[in-house]
Known about the structure:
By secondary structure, this protein is mostly helical. 72% of the residues lie in helices and 0% in strands.
Amino acid sequence: TEIFDSLPYYDDDLQKYPHLREKVEQELARERGNAPQTLHPSIPPPIELFADNPLLKAELQRVASNQAFPSLDSLRYSLPAPTTTPGTDEEWKAALDNAHAQLQHQLIRQQNLALLQTYGPNGFRIQNYLLEGTAKQTEKALEELKELTVEVNRERKNTQDRLGKQLTALETRWTELISSVLQIEMANVALDAEIERLNKKEAELAEL
């Protein structure tokens, strides 16, 4: 047996009596203030993103705190010469090693660009195809969930309207019965008074 303690789709007391809404808001605020701070056991714990990757975790914290992105280090792309003239062997060796490293970096970039031009387009097409399929599945699931939500709300509204009309009819019938009972009680009181009057009159006549 279902028990309904509220029919929000049928009851309109909050619209009829605005002061009730204020009381409801106060009660809700009081309950929110007394709400337990711990989560229900059925609720899973929060997921810690990038727990195994400190670099991504630090970047996520930077974005969350609205910090500016650090400026790029352009020194690695320059070829500084020795600071002294004509320069020591160590300074020239460091400058030469830096030039070799940057040359190797450019060669690797060229190789990556060549691989991207060869295999990148198909890879992007496949990835886009998979993403489109996932997006369509997600949109379909969302539409089904919306339709289910609308159907549940429609069923709840119809059920509450039906129950509300039954309650209104029963309340009206109860009021009519109470009124009838009161009328009967008033008639009984009047009859008792009339009987008492007649009894007194009979007693008076008997004494004559």
